[in-house]
Amino acid sequence: MTLLEEVDELRKLRMQADRRAEGILPAFFHEMFGDLIANPKGWPVVRVEEAGNIQPGRGRALKQRKGHFTRPCVGAANLSKAGIDVSDLPLMGFDKRDFERYRLEHGDILLNERQTAAAAGKPAMWRNEVPDCYFQHPLVRFRPDPERVLPDFALAAFLAYFGEGKLTRTSKTSSVAHPGWGRLAKMPLPLPPLSLQQEFAARADEIRAMEGGQAASRERLEDLFQSLL
């Protein structure tokens, strides 16, 4: 076997390991909290709007794009399978009165309000990747109440709902799904004790660190493979 073939085999093994690793956090969440839809553990249930603040993104009509201050925004196209891609953020004009309403804070959960049926409602967490950043329609922001729900738990819960198709509703005449921020606000959300949510958040940090190491390993193998071609 040549060196190129050996490196290619390592790349394939790395990809297989990455696919298996993707299921670790959802499996741990399910082990700790059970199926949130069936709620077999009997956690107290509130509406999503009672566990935090729901806010639709800023509209993109021409008259709304103008403003005295231009700021980067997260749009639907920036939400990907891996999270939030900030490499090419759109710019929008804002007035000072808009800042508090649309500015993103660490721990905000963003969901697509309207996209293809496969992507609508897919959540991602904002982690202050870009300073002084905002969000636009058709995204919806959920800002957790820190006394009731932690961001990591909220994100995992919405991901579980997304996986079950609970965040999408497609009309008979369109392939575009509309979760709707009003509908999202009324959805039930089981709330385990904060101590358990904190335990889950700590484990989530460990898993993300592991995934970061895997990504670095994948990039090194890819660079090596390309250099041998």
Widest beta sheet: strand line-up? 2-11-7-9
Distance between the ends: 15 Å
pLDDT < 50 runs, ≥5 residues:
170-179
Number of strands: 13
The whole-angstrom Rg is 20 Å
Estimated share of beta-strand residues: 15-25%
Largest sheet: 4 strands, antiparallel
Describe this structure in words.
This protein has 229 residues and is α+β, with helices and mostly antiparallel strands. It contains 7 helices and 13 strands. The strands form 5 sheets. The protein has a 4-stranded antiparallel sheet. The protein has a 3-stranded mixed sheet with strand order 6-3-10. A two-stranded antiparallel ribbon has the order 1-13. A hairpin with a 2-residue loop joins strand 4 (79-80) and strand 5. It is globular, with a radius of gyration of 20 Å.
SSE inventory with pairings:
Layout: H1 3-21, H2 24-33, E1 45-47, E2 52-56, H3 62-65, E3 69-74, E4 79-80, E5 83-84, E6 91-94, H4 96-102, E7 109-112, E8 115-116, E9 123-125, E10 134-135, E11 139-144, H5 151-163, E12 176-177, H6 181-186, E13 188-190, H7 194-228
Parallel strand pairs: 3-10
Antiparallel strand pairs: 1-13, 2-11, 3-6, 4-5, 7-9, 7-11, 8-12
Helix pairs in contact: 1-7, 2-7
